[in-house]
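The pair is listed for reference:
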Amino acid sequence: MTHPNVHKWYFYLQRLLFFRVSSGPTWSEGLISVLAIVGGIAGFRRRRLSGANASLVRFLAIYTFLLTAFYSLLAYKTPWCLLSFWHGAILLAGVGAAVLLRTAPHRTWRGGICGLLLVGSMHLSWHSLASRYDLLG
């Protein structure tokens, strides 16, 4: 008999990046993941950090990566355990958003980036409200 909380190594990544149950909505925290990667890379390159402390950003990147790897390697997984590493990713995503805005060559690009960030934030907000008020069916 297998335990219901024993899952493959990619369980958390699957839940965060692309998750769908039958005909229900698609859940994704992809925006945060992409922005966290951008923020982490910027921390190691020490460029366009918008006044952020590069050492702190590097620490967050290493912390988040190691905790993600550690929790992914454990066979026993419960969904709330991903919060241990996800808060680091959220902070890195803020750095990543600032880096993208700072790197944009001119206003048109910055406006486009702001638009994409707004749409992504609206998507995350909709899922939050939908799950809170059971609007998904």
